[in-house]
Amino acid sequence: MGKIVIDIEQCKGCKLCVISCPKQLIKLSEKLNLAGYHPAEFIDNGECNSCGSCYQLCPDVAIEVWKEEKR
Asked: How far is the CA of 23 from the CAs of 9, 11, 15, 19, 63, in angstroms?
């Protein structure tokens, strides 16, 4: 099980992470950040596998990828 954390103030809403997510778990927010962009937001439904596609394509280094270890 994984998750991502998006720094909404760093994100410029380029949509590269939205396009790259194979599970379609990222969308653009309807809210604006302080710079006036619609930042990406993570839809945490438990399906993220921490593949890192979003992290690798983010030009603003605004995404962290986390993976929970199974116990």
From this structure: 24, 20, 15, 10, 16
C-alpha 34/C-alpha 61 separation (Å) is 17
Domain 2-67 has CATH 3.30.70.20: yes
Residue with tokens 């993976």: 67
Average pLDDT score over residue span 13-26: 97
Query: For the chain, how many residues are written?
Result: 71
Instruction: Tell me the whole-structure pTM to 2 decimals.
Output: 0.90
**Calpha distance 27→19 (Å, rounded):** 9
Domain assignments of the chain as residue spans, ordered by start: 2-67
